[in-house]
Every structure is written in structure tokens, then in C-alpha cells.
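Cast an eye over this sequence plus C-alpha cells and walk me through the fold:

***
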Amino acid sequence: MPGVKCMVEECMYNNHRGGCTAEEILIATNGNPIAGTVKGTMCSTFDFDHHTNQYGDNVSD
């Protein structure tokens, strides 16, 4: 998949040149009600956008 970098050596879609050969990928939260950090999404390219939490509260700065 062009533009997607893969660092997981155990993944069958890793082409071992830093690329991903999967036709599609799925990115989801890490079970947190608010995905406000890289750790919350397990996505190192995550950049927090302005959102509200499950209670409707603004969670942006």
C-alpha cells in the first residue's frame, strides 16, 4: 500500500523494505473512550483533532 510504512516484522504484509503490501488497513482506538494520544490509538502518526467525548464535552484545547 503506497505511503503506508510497516515496522512490524511479524506481519505477513510487511515487505521487509519498510512497506505494507496489504490492500487495505484498519485503524481503531485502543479501547479508550477518547483517542487523544498516540498511545490511545497505537498509531505513531496520530495527531489529535478537535472532538467531543461520549458525554458531549469538548475535549480540544
Observations:
- Residues 1-49 form one domain.
- The CA atoms of residues 7 and 18 lie 6 Å apart.
- The chain has a mean pLDDT of 74.
